[in-house]
Amino acid sequence: MKKKSKTMTFREKMPTSPKSPLRRRRSSWTGTWLNHQTTSFKQAVSAVIQAQSPRSRFKSLSSDFSDVDRTLSLSDSLLLKILEKLPESQNEDVSLVCKRWLSVQGRRLRSMKVFDWEFLLSGRLVSRFPKLTSVDLVNACFNPSSNSGILLCHTSISFHVSTDSSLNLNFVEESLLDNEMVDKGLRVLGRGSFDLIKLVVINATELGLLSLAEDCSDLQELELHKCSDNLLRGIAACENLRGLRLVGSVDGLYSSSVSDIGLTILAQGCKRLVKLELSGCEGSFDGIKAIGQCCEVLEELSICDHRMDDGWIAALSYFESLKTLLISSCRKIDSSPGPGKLLGSCPALESLQLRRCCLNDKEGMRALFKVCDGVTKVNIQDCWGLDDDSFSLAKAFR
Question: Could you give the CA distance from residue 29 to residue 34 in angstroms, rounded to a whole number?
Fold first, then answer.
């Protein structure tokens, strides 16, 4: 009788009890291996399908490309042209997108009214906005009053006033930055704004304007508040100046004097002026005559709230190229213009405009109409003191 073989298979040697350590180890190895193989297999199959299907490949690429800033491939000049097509109402929103858009948007801005003087002194103004052509510094030239909610506004000037300012009549002048600080800001602006064309400033000095003119040779328009005779010495270096506005004294705000001396300095230093406005300025026949003789291409003259001596109207006949004469906010025209036979006329004058003026001075009105006898357009707006006899003076017009 043959004996049975006692050879045992591997399966028979494995323990059958689920609690066996060896069986538990075998189960964990198997699961791990199977999971790994399954994951790799799925990835491989997915890669093959995407490689064989162009549509699936395009979908994958587009999903990855959506997370990338597509404007990075655009140059700054091209991006700037695109941003220029947007409306101005979206300028602030565009600058908040990213640092690059903030920088590009800064190069787009050309005009700015500054309210923080430290922003100018720190150099951030010229670095943040390197292409500025028009800068208004008037509101920034006032020391801020942080403990007051009272805002004083007068034409182009606005600043906060402290609650105890009503006790001091010179509170406006005391709120202004000192001359040295204003000149320092002009030097910073001049070194960085080589494209500057227009500037509005208050309480500057001759040295500040000279330093600015050296760096900004293309300056064409200048507006000086609280102007004086000494300040006008600094504008002689502005060789390309075409438009000038001088504000001397403003009732209730500040006082400064522009006399015949300053007007003569102006006439000799700014012979290329095309447009001139004198507001709150003094002077007389001599100062106006000097401007008429030296500024041969002057086409527009504005006289606002003048404090000039009697007889200044007769000097208007020396303006050979003057086309527009604007007189506004004047409490008088000319109380004693002199004999009518000595009054000449402006040969090129086309338009006479009177706004917010007192016109009850018959002698001054008669002299003004005599000098402006060649105009083709007369505009009288918001004036007072007129009566029926005043219109009879219009017979002086040809």
Answer: 9
Q: Which pLDDT tens digit goes with each residue over 219-265?
A: 999 999 999 999 999 888 888 899 999 999 988 788 899 999 999 99
Residue type, 297: V
pLDDT above 50: residue 13: no
Task: Say what the alpha-carbon torsion angle 219, 295, 372, 335 is, to the nearest 10 degrees.
Answer: 90
Q: Which of 24-33, 121-130, 185-194, 382-391 has the lowest mean pLDDT?
A: 24-33
Tokens of 74: 């655009």
Residues in the chain: 398
Q: Give me the DSSP letters along 174-196.
A: HHBPPHHHHHHHHHHHHHH-TT-
The pLDDT of residue 90 is 66
Q: What is the H or E stretch that residue 126 is in?
A: helix 124-128
Q: Are 115 and 139 in contact (CB under 8 A)?
A: yes
Helix axes 99-108, 76-83, angle to 10 degrees: 70
Q: Which of 235, 246, 315, 314 is closest to 282 using CA atoms?
A: 246
Give the CB-side neighbour count of residue 111, counting CA atoms within 13 A. Answer: 3
Give all strands of the β-sheet with 377-381 in edge-to-edge order: 111-113, 134-136, 198-202, 221-225, 243-247, 275-279, 300-304, 324-328, 351-355, 377-381
Tokens of 275: 């447009």
Compute the distance between CA of residue 138 and CA of residue 225 in angstroms, rounded to an integer. 8
Amino acid at 147: N
> Residue 161: what are its φ and ψ, rounded to 5°?
-115, 135
How far is Cα 178 from Cα 166, in angstroms, rounded to an integer?
A: 21
Q: Residue 365 pairs with which residues in a beta bridge? A: none
Separation of alpha carbons 168 and 391, rounded Å: 45
* pTM of the predicted model as reported, rounded to 2 decimal places: 0.74
The secondary structure of 16-39 as a DSSP string is --TT-HHHHHHHHHHHHHHHHHHH
Rounded Cα distance between 28 and 34, Å, is 10
Q: Is the pLDDT of residue 159 over 90?
A: no
Weakest mean pLDDT among 1-5, 183-187, 213-217: 1-5
Take residue 373 and report the two structure tokens written for it.
Answer: 């006898």
Single out the residue of 159, 214, 160 nearest to residue 186, CA to CA: 214
- Rounded distance between C-alpha atoms, residue 376 and residue 134, angstroms: 34
CA distance 262 to 257: 9
Side chain identity at residue 155, one-letter code? T
